[in-house]
Specification:
Blueprint: E1 3-8, H1 14-24, E2 31-38, E3 41-47, H2 51-61, E4 67-73, E5 88-90, E6 93-101, H3 104-113, H4 123-137, H5 142-151, E7 155-163, E8 170-175, E9 180-183, E10 188-191, E11 203-206, E12 211-215, E13 220-224, E14 229-230, E15 235-236, H6 252-258, H7 260-268, H8 287-291, E16 295-300, H9 302-317, E17 322-327, H10 328-331, E18 342-348, H11 354-363, E19 370-375, H12 381-385, E20 388-391, H13 404-423, H14 429-450, H15 453-461, E21 468-473, H16 478-492, E22 495-500, E23 517-521, H17 528-539, E24 544-550, E25 562-567, H18 575-594
Parallel strand pairs: 16-17, 16-18, 18-19, 19-20, 21-22, 21-23, 23-24, 24-25
Antiparallel strand pairs: 1-4, 1-10, 2-3, 2-4, 5-6, 6-7, 7-8, 8-12, 9-10, 9-11, 11-15, 12-13, 13-14
Helix pairs in contact: 1-2, 3-4, 4-5, 7-13, 7-14, 9-13, 9-16, 14-18, 15-18, 16-18
The structure holds glutamine hydroxamate.
């Protein structure tokens, strides 16, 4: 969501800012803009089109200046128009913002009485006017005006602010939205993600919640909102600038689908013993605390929530631990009852998902025994604020629709289950060895499944013109059906619903006719015969079935109504991971056929940093 880039340098900053914005495009946005300080005045260019159009505008219209800020916006307040796009300007001040100012309406009312008029419908312009009011009308130096205004904010923000009367300084701050400072030589930067700054630096300072930074070419100083100076460690990033190239692939999502064998190998690397998982690489690992877990609460959003649902099946069945899974945006607004020795697990690709992060903060006051996050971004807020962090090691995921982040989350949950099951002796040494061997075989098994891409592409040809689709699964494959449906709707815009197959007759069966494709995730497992009955119910009503089965299974027969897609047989514990892969490929190919923007589907953002 929203990308922020800022630079103060001894060279023109527009190329740095625009390159940074294009590196943040994957987060999803609806408009973009840039503002530099040029000869003592502000030069601002904005558009509702893509960053490459902004680049053309900057080339044609010119945007010189050694200090500047830029932004990709994902609208929360006010429709996506050039006027509502950031940077906003009030007087000599210009600002970009990620987040939501919840009390902007009250602020606006007071400011209107003070004579302020607003060009945009955004909350951001109101906050900027408030800073301007404190600075210009109340006479506070800009740093104090900035801090004072922020102390009065209810909501969340990452901000970068410049003043054409103070042309060598950027003021930045964060609360509830990510922001990182990049350190150069005689130049300094600010951005919402390190990826934006990798071409110019690898040295970063991560701002904490409620901190302000003042950047010049010579220094970076950090303060609390009360303006007490803070000192931070400098972190060296090991990501390289190439981590965001598509390589030989047409889309990031396609690349990321095919990276899964490697990503899964990385997730498991150094985390397997002979018959158990070795979790010592978990940040803050404390075996005693983990072992006394009696219950688990998992909280997440979207695809990560589906990973949590799979985790519940594993944790209850294999480790015998009572587990419940909740959507973060629901959990945070209800009163939860927490039993003794309950471990709180959050799952998020970016580690900045606003609702999930808010739940973690809430959970700390609710009496959980500890918090563990499963996350792909090692320097994210979720990782920094959790007691334990299990990094999924999927590598940068750019496509908005999550693929490798999901399967590596699943593997992380399986490793945690194995560890807890072995220590609680619900998994025997022999079973443990079998799971370890299955995990070792997983990258090759995933590669084999992915090699069926051409077949899935052909199948997508029969799907892409449909308007609705059902995905069915039972047991641990039910969340995989949910995830398959989510993937399809996210990127191909085909309306899809995932259902527990046993629920069919309680409602959705009314939708079945010959125009409705029904995808069934049907590996050989204990529930297969139950699933076969559900499939018969669909056939009897003329439904068109696409059944993902496995080699060696005699359960289904190809006929006029039924298409069988066989996956290589593999250890049952791997089924949720392996059966996810063709569903990702199906969604991808449907989206390509339908000509949608695969990596940046409409209205979606990669890192959902607003609630
Ligand atoms: N509230 C601001 C910024 C939105 C945002 O952070 N999106 O990710 C606006 O609507 O412009």
């Amino acid at each position: 969501m929203c990308g922020i880039v800022g630079a103060v340098a001894q060279r023109d900053v527009a190329p740095i800012l625009l390159e940074g914005l294009s590196r943040l495009e994957y987060r999803g946005y609806d408009s973009c803009g840039i503002c530099t300080i040029s000869n003592g005045s502000l030069r601002c260019i904005k558009t509702t089109q893509k960053v490459r159009v902004l680049m053309d505008m900057v080339r044609d219209e010119g945007c010189p200046g050694k200090t500047g800020i830029a932004h990709t916006r994902w609208a929360t307040h006010g429709v996506p128009t050039a006027t509502n796009a950031h940077p906003h300007i009030v007087g000599t001040l210009s600002m970009v913002h990620n987040g939501i100012i919840e009390n902007f309406a009250q602020m606006k009312e007071t400011l209107v009485k003070e004579g302020y008029a607003f060009k945009s419908q955004t909350d951001t312009e109101v906050l900027l006017a408030q800073i301007h009011f404190l600075h210009v009308k109340k006479g506070l130096p800009l740093k104090e005006a900035f801090a004072t205004a922020l102390r009065g904010v209810k909501g969340s923000y990452a901000l970068a602010l410049i003043d054409s009367e103070d042309p060598d300084t950027i003021y930045a701050a964060r609360y509830g939205s990510p922001l990182v400072i990049g350190l150069g030589i005689e130049e300094n930067f600010v951005a919402s993600d390190v990826l934006a700054l990798l071409p110019v630096t690898r040295r970063f300072i991560y701002l904490d919640e409620g901190e302000i930074a003042v950047l010049t070419t010579k220094s970076v100083r950090i303060y609390s909102l009360d303006l007490v100076e803070h000192h931070h460690e400098i972190c060296e990033s090991d990501l390289d600038a190439e981590s965001i190239s598509k390589g030989k692939y047409r889309h990031f999502m396609q690349k990321e689908i095919f990276e899964q064998p490697e990503a899964l190998k990385n997730t498991a690397m150094g985390r397997l013993g002979a018959d158990n998982a070795d979790l010592s690489s978990i940040t803050g690992f404390d075996p005693k605390l983990l072992e006394k877990t009696d219950c688990i609460k998992i909280v997440a959003c979207g695809t990560s929530y589906h990973a949590g649902l799979v985790g519940k099946y594993w944790l209850e069945e294999l480790a015998g631990i009572s587990t419940s899974v909740e959507i973060a945006s629901e959990y945070r607004y209800r009163r939860a009852v927490v039993k003794d020795n309950t471990l709180f697990i959050t799952i998020s690709q970016s580690g900045e998902t606003a609702d999930t992060l808010a739940c973690l903060r809430l959970a700390k006051k609710q009496g959980y025994s500890a918090s563990l996050c499963i996350c792909n971004a090692g320097s994210s807020s979720l990782v920094r604020e959790s007691d334990f962090a299990m990094l999924t090691r999927a590598g940068a995921e750019i496509g908005v629709a999550s693929t490798k982040a999901f399967t590596t989350q699943l593997l992380s949950l399986l490793l945690i289950t194995l560890y807890l099951g072995r220590t609680r002796k619900t998994i025997s040494a022999e079973e443990g060895r079998k799971i370890v061997n299955a995990i070792k075989a997983l990258p090759d098994a995933a590669r084999e499944v992915l090699s069926g891409d051409e077949k899935i592409k052909e199948l997508a040809g029969r799907f892409a013109d449909k308007h609705n689709c059902l995905f069915l699964g039972r047991g641990i494959m039910y969340p995989i059906a949910l995830e398959g449906a989510l993937k399809l709707k996210e990127i191909s815009y085909i309306h899809a619903e995932g259902y527990a197959a046993g629920e069919l007759k309680h409602g959705p069966i009314a939708l079945i006719d010959e125009t409705m494709p029904v995808v069934v995730v049907a590996p050989d497992n204990a529930l297969l015969s139950k699933l076969e009955s559900n499939i018969e119910e669909v056939r009897a009503r003329g439904g068109r079935l696409y059944v993902f089965s496995q080699e060696g299974s005699n359960a289904f027969k190809d006929d006029r109504q039924t298409n069988i897609i066989k996956l290589p047989a593999a250890d049952p514990v791997l089924q949720p991971i392996l059966f996810t892969l063709p569903l990702q490929q199906l969604a991808y190919h449907c989206a390509v056929i339908n000509g949608t923007d695969v990596d940046q589907p409409r209205n979606l953002a990669k890192s959902v940093t607003v609630e």
